[in-house]
Write a structure and sequence with these properties.
Low-confidence stretches: 1-43
Distance between the termini: 21 Å
Pfam family, one: Copper-bind
Bound molecules: copper (II) ion
Helix content: 10-25%
Shape: globular
Number of domains: 1
Mean pLDDT: 84
Keywords: Copper, Electron transport, Metal-binding, Signal, Transport
Largest sheet: 5 strands, mixed
Radius of gyration: 16 Å
Number of strands: 8
InterPro entries: Azurin, BlueCu_1, BlueCu_1_BS, Cu-binding_ET, Cupredoxin
Protein name: Azurin
GO molecular function, one term: electron transfer activity
């Protein structure tokens, strides 16, 4: 796991010293949004930026008080178990800034699922009406807590999000299984 954190830090350090102009840095988030087409995404959709992500079967994602995941692209081998740990690294109370990580099946409509989740207050924002859309999910975590899930994915692109009300718009990412 250590390697995973050291390499991005090095790349960042080199980027800053050699370039020195952060304004020119490309915004990957904006780019991925603008390249989305109106057609329904097939399981084999190309995910921008995934070529820069190293494939691994063990991932740790952090959620913070700024309502952000620190990882938005996950790359795994299809057909093999993947361990995903979510850590809530924030300090705000669970009631106002709780986080979970819900892995959805390919093609699930995120706004629809998010709306159902928001209503599922009594079930930690895991909607019973949306269970068939879910591949796996962590518990809802308060500050300093963590939870781990293991999923095995067929080839495809799986959205993941935090289903705490209001979070999924920002707190979402994609798992590419190949
Ligand atoms: Cu959240």
């Amino acid at each position: 796991m250590k390697k995973l954190f050291i390499i991005p830090a090095l790349v960042l350090a080199i980027g800053i010293t050699s370039c020195g102009n952060n304004a020119e840095k490309k915004d990957d988030t904006a780019a991925s949004t603008s390249t989305e087409t109106t057609t329904e995404a097939p399981a084999t959709e190309t995910v921008p930026g995934i070529e820069n992500v190293t494939s691994s079967q063990t991932w740790t994602v952090e959620g913070n008080d700024q309502m952000q995941f620190n990882t938005n692209l996950i790359r795994v081998k299809a057909g093999e178990p993947v361990e995903i740990t979510l850590k809530n690294v924030g300090s705000m109370p669970k009631e106002s800034m709780g986080h979970n990580l819900v892995v959805l099946k390919p093609g699930v409509d995120i706004p629809t699922f998010g709306a159902e989740a928001t209503a599922a207050v009594d079930n930690e924002y895991i909607p019973k009406s949306g269970l068939s859309s879910i591949v796996g999910h962590t518990k809802l975590l308060g500050p300093g807590e963590e939870d781990k899930i293991t999923v095995t994915l067929e080839k495809g692109v799986y959205p993941y999000l935090c289903s705490f009300p209001g979070h999924f718009g920002i707190m979402q990412g994609k798992i590419v299984a190949e």
